[in-house]
Amino acid sequence: MATGLMTKDETQFERRPVKLTGSALAIMAFQTLGVIYSDIGTSPLYVLNGIWPSSGPVPSTEDVIGGVSAIVWSMTLLPLIKYSFIALHFGTGEGEGGTFALLQGLYPRSPFVEFDRTLTSDSAVRARSDVENRRGLEFLKQGKWPLYFWSLFGTALTLGDGVLTPAVSVTSAVGGLAVAKPSVINHIISISIAILVVLFLVQRFGTNKITLAFAPVTFIWLALIGVSGIYNITAHPGIFRALDPSRAVMWFVRTKKYDNLAGVLLAITGCEALFANLGQFNALSIRLSFTLFVFPCLILAYLGQGARVIADGEAVMSNIFYTTIPGRHNGPLYWIIWLFALLATIIASQAMITAVSSLTQQLINCKSFPPLRLVYTSSLVQGQVYVPAANYTLGLATVIVVAAFKNLTNMTNAYGFAVSTVMIVTSTFISFHIYIKKGLPIFVAIGFFLVFGFFDGLFFGASLRKVPLGAWVPLSIGCALCALMLFWTWAKGLEDVFDGENRRNPRHFIINRDSAHIDEKGLVASTEFERPGAFSPESHDPRGITHNGEADSPVRQRNRVVLPGEDTIDAEAEAVDEKSQELVFYDDVKNKVTTLSRIPTCAIFYKLAPGPGVPHSFYGYIRQMPALPRVVIFLSFHVVPVPYVAADDAYAVTKVRSIQGFYGVTYCLGFRDDFNPSTDHIFRAVHGIESRVNPSQARQILDEIKEAADQTVHIIPHYYVISKQLRFSPEWAANAISWIRRLLIESIYRRLATMFPETANWGLQQEDTLYVGVNALI
Question: Which residues lie closer than 8 Å to 577 by C-beta, 6 or more apart?
Fold first, then answer.
């Protein structure tokens, strides 16, 4: 049996949303301006020209009022009500937002650290999941893959939209130079590319430093366009009729131009960033900054621009934003606003770049994306992360888009499609959350989807008509990323299934010679020990019951040394005699045993995934070299949602009492800690548990452990994946599918897994590390 010593409360490592009040909340709300709102905040630069191009006729007064009304109410219904007031309530328990976080909310991971206490348990108990406590369980089980695909598609389009957001925002701001200095019109693209290159290069300094520098700029920018809007409204106070939603409806009825809605959509691009960046901040800080400052400033800016179009007509149509700046075109205020417009559009790109990093982190943690290197840049908020590979790929794609489209009009045709699609995905998942997770009546969920799904659908239909005009770019990028995510999820899932199915109970193949009846040929005639068998998740009892019939609650597990599915033993229980025993290795294939000698070394076997049993690499090691190190440690690791974990608190040890010298260790490291397990601290923790459960022999055992520790080797499995040959009728179909499957697994996944290994960033000395190759037939 195994027993464990718990020196910490598991809940101390549970990640929660950041909760702040007072001045700290005000500071965080101010910081949101530097990341979230510059995308939606810079939309006044191009929205009205997106509806009424400079090359077209001057719109009538009623058309302007109707168009501005459509903008005002689109912003009210979607960014304000749907996202700020509703969506922010649906982040995960860990404080993450976005479409993929909504999926995690329906299929949550356990919030507790899985301390490795199941090395020798065939009936390890899993706590009943939250999904099993909610309504709609059968639907969630049957609809997991469709929902998973829908969520990945929305996430992929958001990542694809990260290419166009910087391109459109920066180019639109730089275009203001041509209004005051027509001679630079041919250099707009080159200037834009230079600014974008610098923007992506500074990402490595971290979100926290960037927001401290950018938040004041965005604040001044929004204040400038808000005040300018108030001034411009005086040119035609009748623009306030746009606050009547019927004006927007009448505009579409009168003009019958459904495509105009695609121009209105440009006003709300960036609204998804309010939700996707939830992990960077918290819900209250985002809600306060948007409702009290960002939203009023934007509404005033659009009303002011509409008033000037009505009053000045043809004179402002060439570039509605810059030509409606109060004062002369080459005056001080013009250049002040131009400078802050340029800076704000740079920050607008920051909003989507940080959202891309946050979403990439979620995908990697859920094993839906190759494990790229993550660099955490804040000790307070785990969501503030920098992903170098994603950043530079995004930057390169953005530069290519700017160079290829050549002008702002072509880029705005491509812009907005991803936003409208993601809005539908978000509405779908929130509807499920309302009924299943929040427990509200089903008509509330249906009502939410009908109302907001209707508006999302209108925008999606309008943007769909732009696919031939350039929207195929974000659609193609999104589809390619979605295919990669689905492929990685499928292949990694097959590898994890292999890992789980090939876990073994050490009591099944390492036995005391006295327990087996061995004939003169070394064959096992009969056994009194447990027969070999792999661990199966299906064998776990979902009721949380140990084999003695008592409920196994988390509190009980923390207060007592309990192994689910095994005898419950108090930490102070009388120690069993652990005299040296002659151990043999039982080869269940050959039904033969081999004597195992104990050598004065220490071997640390790494478990790449949590779960019961010992890894396949250990069984292969014993089979190839029939000798047991004096100390054998099975090391699992768990990244916890705190920045740093003190070395003395980082290790939880369990002792396998049926086999002397076997220990299970869970290594907990903070999200800013380097992966570098300390053998000194591991042995100190082992000494602690020996002192408690076996005090009479602790000194002798410790001396033996110290001797073994001088020769420590780290053993890490490396799976060499091989595709299975499928067998079914007709045979030609099985062969064809097997060929495709082999191509995907052996030619693509195997190479990607080699390029992006899980162990790439581990701080282990290579001379003390042994990689054990395991042929994984998946």
Answer: none
Q: Which residue has the tokens 């309530």?
A: 89
Tokens 């100190």 label which residue? 684
Judgement on whether residues 518 and 622 belong to the same structural domain of the protein: yes
E strand intervals along 335-471: 375-376, 385-386
Instruction: Give yes or no: residues 206 and 262 share one domain.
Output: yes
Any idea what the Cα angle at residue 642 is, between residues 640 and 648, rounded to 5°? 80
Q: What percent of the chain shows pLDDT beyond 90?
A: 20
Mean pLDDT rounded to a whole number for the chain: 77
H or E segment to which residue 632 belongs: strand 627-640
Count how many domains the chain has: 2
Contacts of 371 (CB under 8 A, 6+ apart): 364, 756, 757, 758, 760
Q: How far apart are CA 483 and CA 513, in angstroms?
A: 53
Q: Is the residue at 114 inside a domain?
A: no
Last residue of a domain, one of 491, 519, 550: 491
Compute CA 755 distance to the chain's CA centroid, rounded to the nearest angstrom.
Answer: 20
Question: Could you give phi then psi for residue 297, rounded to 5 degrees?
Answer: -65, -40
Average pLDDT over residues 710-735: 87
**pLDDT, tens digit (0-9, with 9 covering 90-100), for 234-281:** 999 999 999 999 999 999 999 888 888 988 998 998 788 788 777 667
The residue among 130 and 380 whose pLDDT is bigger is 380
Question: Would you state the pLDDT for residue 233?
Answer: 95
Q: At CA 653, angle to CA 649 and CA 654, rounded to 5?
A: 155
* Residue 643 confidence (pLDDT): 60
Predicted confidence (pLDDT) at residue 561 exceeds the cutoff of 50: no
Domain identity same for 431 and 520: no
At 533, the pLDDT band (50, 70, 90 cuts) reads very low
Q: Under 8 Å CB-to-CB from 14, ≥6 apart: which residues?
A: 111, 112, 641
290 belongs to a structural domain:
yes
Higher local confidence (pLDDT), 110 or 654? 654
- Could you give the maximum distance between any two Cα atoms of the chain, in Å? 107
Pairing of strands 583-587, 510-512: antiparallel
Q: Which has more pLDDT, 451 or 696?
A: 451
Query: 610 vs 524, which has greater pLDDT?
Result: 610
Range of the domain at 322: 35-107+146-491
Indicate whether 442 and 523 sit together in one domain. no
Owner of token pair 């979605």: 482
Strand, coil or helix: 325: coil
Looking up residue 222, the CATH number of its domain turns out to be 1.20.1740.10
Same domain (yes/no): 519, 403 = no
**Same domain, yes or no: 226 and 305:** yes
DSSP code, position 125: P
Domain stop point among 491, 521, 543: 491
- 652 beta partners: 666
If asked whether residues 636 and 693 sit together in one domain, one would say yes
pLDDT score at 456: 92
- Hey, CA dihedral for 271, 272, 274, 280, is it positive or negative? negative
CB 84 within 8 A of CB 286: yes
Strands 516-518 and 627-640: unpaired
Question: Same domain for 296 and 337?
Answer: yes
